[in-house]
Amino acid sequence: CELLQLFTLHFMTFDSASTVPDLLSIFHEQEMTETVHETNGHGYLATFVGKNGRFVILRVHSHGLVTIDLQCYEEDNISQLDNLLNALETKLKALLNGNITRIKRLPALIRGAKVDRYWPTADGRLIEYDIDGVVYEEDSAYQNIKILHSQQFGNILVLNGDVNLAESDLAYTQAIMGSGKEDYAGKEVLILGGGDGGILAEVVKQKPKMITMVEISFIVIDGCKMHMRKTCGDILDNLKGDCYQVIEDCVPVLKKYVKEGRMFDYIINDLTAVPISTEPEEDSTWEFLRLILDLSIKVLHPSGKYFTQGNSVNLSEALTLYEEQLGKLSCPVDFSKEVVCVPSYLELWVFYTIWKK
Amino acid sequence: CELLQLFTLHFMTFDSASTVPDLLSIFHEQEMTETVHETNGHGYLATFVGKNGRFVILRVHSHGLVTIDLQCYEEDNISQLDNLLNALETKLKALLNGNITRIKRLPALIRGAKVDRYWPTADGRLIEYDIDGVVYEEDSAYQNIKILHSQQFGNILVLNGDVNLAESDLAYTQAIMGSGKEDYAGKEVLILGGGDGGILAEVVKQKPKMITMVEISFIVIDGCKMHMRKTCGDILDNLKGDCYQVIEDCVPVLKKYVKEGRMFDYIINDLTAVPISTEPEEDSTWEFLRLILDLSIKVLHPSGKYFTQGNSVNLSEALTLYEEQLGKLSCPVDFSKEVVCVPSYLELWVFYTIWKK
User: Fold this and answer.
1) Do A126 and B104 touch (CB under 8 A)?
2) pLDDT tens digits for A218-254?
3) Taking a C-beta distance cutoff of 8 angstroms, is the pair B251, B291 a contact?
4) Tens digit of pLDDT for each residue in A288-316?
5) Which positions 310-339 of A are in contact with B (Cβ < 8 Å)?
6) What is the pLDDT of residue A12?
7) What secondary structure does DSSP assign to A310-325, as a single string?
8) A302 touches chain B (CB under 8 A)
9) pLDDT at residue A124 in the model
10) Where in this chain does the record put each PABS domain (chains A, B) (predicted)?
């Protein structure tokens, strides 16, 4: 499988660059075939096809922006390409006579690689991870489950394309357990989701009375117990222990507990982030979120606490909407929130603590 | 100033996509002018010029990779473009009859913006920050100094294009002070660099005997005292206080201290990261680093500690080389290291503690 690399280089200048023709000689020296395109007044646009599948797009825009995009294959001679980009940079500097306000060459964007390194943040920013391998991939009835290896973060669980948790992310587990301010000893604990086993492994250490973990997909558990051991240790090797049990399927279990009048001291909802859509009436994720919240609060002890993740701190609209939902529950609640740095997320994340008024 | 946005979309398929001509109709419907380029056997390559400066590059590579790059201006109709990309995606899915192993649409890459949001990591990955403004920019004799505003990280100090410290990064300051395991009360402290004032502000709280901070550029201090107040508080408002003084120029001061036989309990080197170049004999940054290290160790109390940042945990070659340098100092030393998550760095960072054997 071939890789296509895209190098982008851009210049900003005060000059309206009348100097373009002088750049062309560089491409001609490389024996590249030139096409000048008609743009109907949108600046100068030329493309150049070279050896080995090289392709360059040169645009000179009317307000002093010059962009050069160079596409090439992985097996191309990279030092030769560096020389080409350097030559272009040097020539443009000379031509524009120092009237340059910015020169920017970005790391190559790679398409077609076996391992995808681009996993945008929840707030939509382009991010390249240092991922060098896929260690696990399965499809469940609900989602695509990947575990990818990152040089710095260890293995990363990715669900439906969202970075969920890496082995480096104890900070996530600590935050969703109340940031070290809670005492789980002797308590009844309900974990919703949490298939990576991180929360279960940490709560067990505090000797609670009983932890019930309800995970919708045992395929996540299977993957994590093999490949996320820095997170879960050996806790997922058995789905039942002295003070914990892991059972399947979330909503029916919650409904049963409501009927039985069960009460929990701590409920930790690790199921899903606050949906980004700000149309709560139309989005099924919102519906699911409200259903879980309402059922959970019913089985929460009057002096208990409910912990959950929110979303990226930058998604203030979605977070506000979630907080509005909290005001509409059948049982009145209060909440506090905390902003936490989870290493592999590459964006700050909001966590909520909710309790009955 | 115009913005050029680049949307990239790629498909991987088992099929050697013979189905390209069927895609062309979509571009023709958009009244785009087509050019098919001769690639000498490197797959199919066509470009399309449309209204408003739109430009599309369609490549079908021989091993089943299809790439579509769409360039447009900021003022273009983005929902129309989304429709175009959606139409292409739908059509390719139908044409390839489910034989698709990956569909990936990346967030737009933006060139020509007033504020540059792309600041690659030390290990060379492409990263987009949530930067929405430049609050300070000056050139000193040594470097370009920028303070940029990030939605989530607060203001960020960027020196010569490297993200140095954000207001969110107390973790950096704590790590380079020894991660809370040291007691600075009554101690003699030397800070090398540290122009953002973070270390100074934190050490002062612990009531040391005297802190001497040696910063090469008072322009950094001027910017930070105005725009990094979550980091430095009001400590930089005065360059001399009860238990601290800030003086200019590092090497001559160190040389004078060596001559006078001065000794410090703590030396915190916040000057510069370990150089990435692995040619220590040829790189002037390495020379500077060795000079500072050697002078510093001479004024370090026999039971004192020297703290410094290393670099990205992924740059293992550069880090190993630095550790080799530590073995070659005129005075034998030992060291330990710690990996820390500094929120705004978007990569894990190594910090060193060094002491005399």
Assistant:
1) no
2) 999 999 999 999 999 999 999 999 999 999 878 889 9
3) yes
4) 888 899 999 999 999 999 999 999 999 99
5) 312-314
6) 76
7) EEETT-HHHHHHHHHH
8) no
9) 94
10) 117-356
**Can you tell me the distance from the alpha carbon of B36 to that of B19, in angstroms, rounded to the nearest whole number?**
15
Which one from A222, A270, A294, A334 is the annotated catalytic residue?
A270
Class of domain A4-111: alpha beta
Per CB-CB distance under 8 Å, the chain B contacts of A312 are 152
Query: Hey, which residues 12-31 in chain B have their CB within 8 Å of chain A?
Result: 12
Burial (0-12, 13-18, 19+ Cβ within 10 Å), A297: buried
| Token pair belonging to A201 | 């492994």
Which of the pair, B158 or A4, is modelled with greater confidence?
B158
Read off the DSSP letter of residue A244.
E
- The structure tokens listed for A275 are 């949906």
SS3 A220: helix
Q: Which pLDDT score is estimated for A278?
A: 64
> Which pLDDT band, with edges at 50, 70 and 90, does A3 fall under?
low
The CATH label, of 3.40.50.2000, 3.40.50.150, 2.60.40.1180, 1.10.760.10, for the domain at A167-356 is: 3.40.50.150
- When computed from its CA atoms, the radius of gyration of chain A, rounded to whole angstroms, is 27
Cβ-contact A3, A112 below 8 angstroms? yes
Rounded Cα distance between A306 and A296, Å, is 8
CATH of domain B169-356: 3.40.50.150
From B42, which residue of chain A is nearest by alpha-carbon distance?
A53
pLDDT confidence of residue A1 = 45
- What is the distance between the alpha carbons of residues A11 and B188, in angstroms, rounded to a whole number? 48
- pTM (predicted TM-score): 0.94
In the structure, how many helices (H) and strands (E) does chain B have? 9, 18
- Please provide the average confidence, as pLDDT, over all residues in chain A: 91
* Strand B264-270 to B188-193 pairing: parallel
> What's the token pair of residue A313?
């701190």
Preferred mutation among A35, A130, A230 to probe B, highest tally of B CBs within 10 A: A130
Chain B, residues 34-93, CB within 8 A of chain A, namely 35, 37-40, 42-43, 45, 47, 49, 51-53, 55, 57, 59, 61-65, 67, 69, 71, 73
Domain residue ranges in chain A: 4-111, 167-356
Mean pLDDT per 10-residue section of chain B, whose length is 357 residues = 69 64 85 92 91 89 84 87 89 81 88 91 96 96 93 96 96 98 98 96 98 92 97 97 92 93 97 72 78 94 97 95 91 97 98 97
Residue A209 DSSP label? S
Q: Does the structure show a pLDDT above 90 at A63?
A: no
Say if CB A313 and CB B152 are below 8 A apart. yes
Judge: A65–B2 Cβ closer than 8 Å, yes or no. Answer: yes
B210-215 and B244-248 strand pairing: parallel
Residue B158: both structure tokens together: 């960027």
Q: What is the ipTM of this complex?
A: 0.93
Q: Which two tokens stand for residue B48?
A: 């399309």
